[in-house]
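dude i think i finally got it to work??
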Amino acid sequence: MEQNQMKTPKKKKNAEKVLWGILIFTISVILATALFLAFYVPNVDDTPQFQTGSDGMTSGGDSEGENTPYERKKGFYTFLLAGIDAFSNNTDVLMLASLDTENGEIRIVQIPRDTYINKTVGGYKSLTRVNAIFSAEYNNQINEGRSAKTAKTFAMQDLQKRLSEALCINIDGYVLIDTKGFRSIIDAVGGIDYDVPQDMFYEDPEQELYINLSKGYQHLNGEQCEQLIRYRSGYATGDIGRVELRGDFMVEVFRQVKNKFGLEALVKLIKDKSLIQKVHTSISPADMIAYVRMCYQLDDNAVSVRTISGSVVQNPETGAWIYYCLNKQKALNDINECLNVFKNDIEASIFDSEGFFSGTKDSSTHYLYEYYNSQ
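look at this
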């Protein structure tokens, strides 16, 4: 089914957090490698955590004398990367990434913000989009009197748990990125060279958003990069078009920053704590050092980005194009190719076994159910 542009409320779009998250990550890779030459093994629990379903068996790691159905790969780590929209507190940028040190690859799978989730399966009253999982739990924690920092931790843990269980992956850590400082970081690394795919012109005074970019290869400063990745009105597929450009842009940022900076320049940049303090993560400093050291050993073309398989699906009764719906079989293929921490492929029988990403057969979301289960 063809994708159409989704109708979304007028609000501030902040996809830029992914870009500056990648910048911080890349800069940390180079700096940490130079400063920490000793070997360190990440303190990662090798026991997979998701439940396989009705038989009650966990997807455990190695067991004595037996090769369990889901034995974990060596040197394969997965991460949840989320970026907050400052206007709604939703994670409008949501990605799962894997670091495969055995094969020298980083693979990133983007989850569109309007991806449908089943509120009944999730235990929600009205929540039906994946980007609101974080904000729902965050608000619950704030209402219970917890601090903003603690609420973020609980909310990210909830998001991590739900994605891990539905997609059958074992997420080793998460990074949550605020939007502030995006322009400063781009300017701090001297801007990015990029081939703008089309003329981009758009104005929204309510958001104080003014986009004015011409098509062609050019050097973009922080403000211009923000315009590039916030632009969506000219894509036939709406926000999906922006997601696809963002993936391409991330790969280019990784390549340019990794090859552009020497140690002194990076030390100076890292000392500016205002550029880094907005990152909220479950990864310890020691493990981060180990992970980034691994990343630095990879080639420039080691990073690949894709959008999890699915489509914007039309409601046949109303004609509305509201949700991005996963296709179960194709999404499972994405997980097995990019994010599967196990030696054996994840089987369809345990993948999203409760239908967290599926509509319901006998309900108003039957059309989502039908697409989700289509071949």
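The chain has one domain: 16-372.
im so relieved honestly
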